[in-house]
């Protein structure tokens, strides 16, 4: 369509030509139009040039300029010009304003998305880096990337400084659960950055504020390339750690408002603790860590210590020797009952009587040359290696108070002495004091979570890779203490530490038990869970995209091969039976194409 007064000149212009004009005009290399020349220029071109000048002043890219011009022509083609040039120009101005308004809305959304992506790494970053880290060079921005550290640098670097900001690097690691400032595996990295900061500035520049060029960044990367590459490729045990943290936060918030239970009245030191304290710490077998709540509050282990002294005895001796003196079956009774099994032994090492016997084993059979006064210091040092070198405290007030309030435990000790349960020559009073000292060990949930993760990792500390228990045989899911602490072990996945003083009638922390129930409800942490028959539970070890792709392939293959039984299982598990692959093919498409009548009938009638 041609407007009046512009005969012989087409309104639709070449977009590429206008982009070129706008681009060259922004650099001052092209001839600009003046107002005196407008009579010889088509009306739309004049308006487009005005728009291009406005857009260029706002630093808008040329592709976005093309969108504005296209929107303008679409609106012009729907209008008929029957008035004078003023009317024509008014219509053009209105069309331009409408187009520019739409463009500004899109631009504001784009800016917000860019800011969000700058703050938090895109979920596809790991896959991008994995593709870039192949042995064959990949062309990116005209440069060849031949290894992972080059790819990582190009993704993390700032476009303005061409360097990697350490704050962003550390933040990205923390998003994957790797705590840069406290992880022992990154100690050499921290020392390298600290030395670099001191040499860069005399004012004590923080390592978070450093900007590393490519050479220094690769030097930093080489201090622990395995951990860094696994973290950024999302090859750790929980690949989608950000999503996992959000779910854990939901469980935490749901349980923190529970007001049931009261702190244990076993001793005054426990009864006087603030009942509103609630802390949860998680450490995976790959050293991914996350904490919520009052994680700086110290608490005594109490009965939780029985887990670690049993594992230590099992490592220092052997299973036959340890279970000569203590059983390994559930008692079906409370932990403090004065009862032995049919062999005149404690039922297992995790009840009070069993804990006393294990202390006697450590006292008499492990390093018997040590003095009794030295044995606790040795045991404390061994447990600190279990916690990656974190300091474990000792609460002397709780220890002394427990000595005057442990009549039942003392009765158990003498009852077992009467039945000759202990190793020959055991000093009963020294053994009992060691047992109470172990119960008075004090730590935070962060420390206990690392110790739990070591158990979950088969006795290897995830933060130091040191073998602590060479022959671990602790197969229990959880252990509680009357102080309100709880130790939870998810084998081959993670350890969880929970602390909340209010306990129930059997001395289990009320909030901790509720939190564990939420974990079991949301994740397949129970030994008898099946993801195939539960659409509500999820496996945090699996990547959601990979899991979805696996389900799609399985469903479509079942439809194409005529496996109605498998399709019924997918349907019962809650899967969307209309899900499609990259070619938009559904199970019904493939079943029909392959002539699988039973599958087609099942999909049409049942799904």
From TrEMBL:
Pfam families: Ank_4 (PF13637), EF-hand_14 (PF17959), Glutaminase (PF04960)
One of the record's GO molecular function terms: glutaminase activity
Signal peptide positions on this chain: none
InterPro entries: Ankyrin_rpt, Ankyrin_rpt-contain_sf, Beta-lactam/transpept-like, Glutaminase, Glutaminase_EF-hand
UniProt keyword terms in alphabetical order: ANK repeat, Hydrolase, Repeat
Gene3D superfamilies reported in the protein's UniProt record: 1.10.238.210, Ankyrin repeat-containing domain (1.25.40.20), DD-peptidase/beta-lactamase superfamily (3.40.710.10)
Catalytic activities: L-glutamine + H2O = L-glutamate + NH4(+)
Superkingdom as given in the UniProt entry: Eukaryota
GO biological process per UniProt: glutamate biosynthetic process; L-glutamine catabolic process
EC number assigned by the record: 3.5.1.2
Subunit structure of this chain's protein: Homotetramer.
Protein family (similarity comment): Belongs to the glutaminase family.
The protein's name: glutaminase
Organism listed in the record: Cyprideis torosa
Lineage: Eukaryota, Metazoa, Ecdysozoa, Arthropoda, Crustacea
């Amino acid at each position: 369509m041609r407007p009046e007064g512009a005969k012989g000149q087409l309104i639709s212009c070449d977009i590429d030509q206008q982009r070129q004009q706008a681009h060259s005009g922004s650099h001052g290399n092209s001839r600009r139009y003046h107002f005196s020349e407008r009579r010889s220029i088509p009306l739309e071109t004049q308006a487009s040039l005005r728009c291009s000048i406005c857009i260029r002043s706002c630093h808008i890219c040329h592709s976005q300029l093309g969108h504005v011009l296209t929107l303008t022509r679409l609106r012009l083609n729907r209008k008929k010009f029957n008035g004078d040039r003023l009317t024509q120009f008014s219509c053009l101005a209105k069309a331009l304003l409408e187009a520019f308004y739409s463009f500004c809305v899109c631009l504001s959304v784009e800016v917000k998305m860019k800011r969000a992506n700058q703050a938090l790494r895109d979920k596809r970053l790991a896959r991008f880096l994995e593709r870039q880290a192949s042995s064959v060079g990949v062309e990116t921005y005209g440069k060849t990337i031949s290894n992972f550290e080059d790819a990582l640098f190009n993704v993390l670097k700032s476009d303005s400084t061409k360097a990697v900001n350490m704050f962003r690097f550390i933040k990205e690691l923390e998003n994957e659960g790797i705590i840069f400032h406290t992880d022992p595996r990154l100690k050499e990295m921290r020392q390298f950055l600290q030395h670099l900061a001191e040499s860069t500035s005399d004012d004590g520049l923080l390592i978070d504020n450093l900007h590393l060029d490519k050479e220094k960044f690769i030097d930093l990367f080489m201090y622990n390339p395995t951990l860094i590459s696994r973290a950024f490729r999302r090859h750790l045990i929980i690949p989608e750690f950000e999503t996992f943290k959000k779910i854990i936060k939901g469980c935490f918030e749901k349980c923190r408002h529970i007001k049931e239970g009261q702190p244990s009245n076993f001793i005054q030191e426990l009864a006087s603790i603030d009942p509103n304290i609630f802390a949860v710490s998680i450490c995976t077998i790959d050293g991914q860590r996350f904490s919520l709540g009052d994680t700086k509050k110290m608490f005594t282990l109490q009965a939780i210590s029985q887990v670690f002294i049993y594992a230590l005895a099992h490592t220092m001796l052997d299973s036959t020797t340890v279970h000569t003196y203590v059983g390994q079956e559930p008692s079906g009774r409370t932990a403090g009952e004065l009862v032995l099994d049919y062999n005149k032994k404690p039922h297992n090492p995790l009840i009070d009587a069993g804990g006393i016997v294990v202390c006697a084993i450590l006292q008499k059979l492990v390093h018997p040359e040590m003095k009794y006064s030295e044995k606790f210091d040795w045991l404390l040092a061994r447990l600190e290696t279990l916690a990656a070198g974190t300091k474990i405290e000792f609460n002397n007030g709780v220890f002394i108070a427990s000595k005057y309030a442990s009549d039942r435990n003392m009765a158990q000790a003498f009852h077992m002495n009467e039945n000759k349960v202990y190793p020959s020559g055991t000093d009963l009073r020294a053994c009992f004091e060691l047992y109470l000292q172990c119960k008075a060990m004090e730590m935070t949930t962060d420390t206990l979570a690392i110790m739990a993760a070591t158990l979950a990792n088969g006795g290897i500390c995830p933060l130091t890779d040191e073998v602590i228990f060479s022959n671990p045989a602790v197969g229990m899911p959880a252990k509680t203490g009357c102080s309100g602490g709880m130790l939870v072990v998810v084998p081959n996945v993670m350890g969880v530490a929970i602390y909340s003083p209010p306990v129930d009638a059997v001395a289990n922390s009320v909030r901790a038990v509720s939190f564990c129930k939420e974990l079991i409800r949301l994740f397949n942490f129970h030994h008898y869970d099946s993801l195939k028959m539960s659409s509500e539970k999820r496996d945090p070890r699996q990547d959601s995209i990979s899991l979805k792709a696996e389900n799609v392939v399985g469903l479509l293959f079942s439809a194409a091969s005529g496996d109605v039984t498998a399709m019924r299982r997918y349907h019962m598990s809650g899967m969307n039976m209309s899900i499609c692959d990259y070619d938009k093919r559904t199970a019904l498409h493939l079943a029909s194409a392959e002539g699988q009548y039973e599958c087609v009938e099942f999909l049409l009638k049942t799904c």
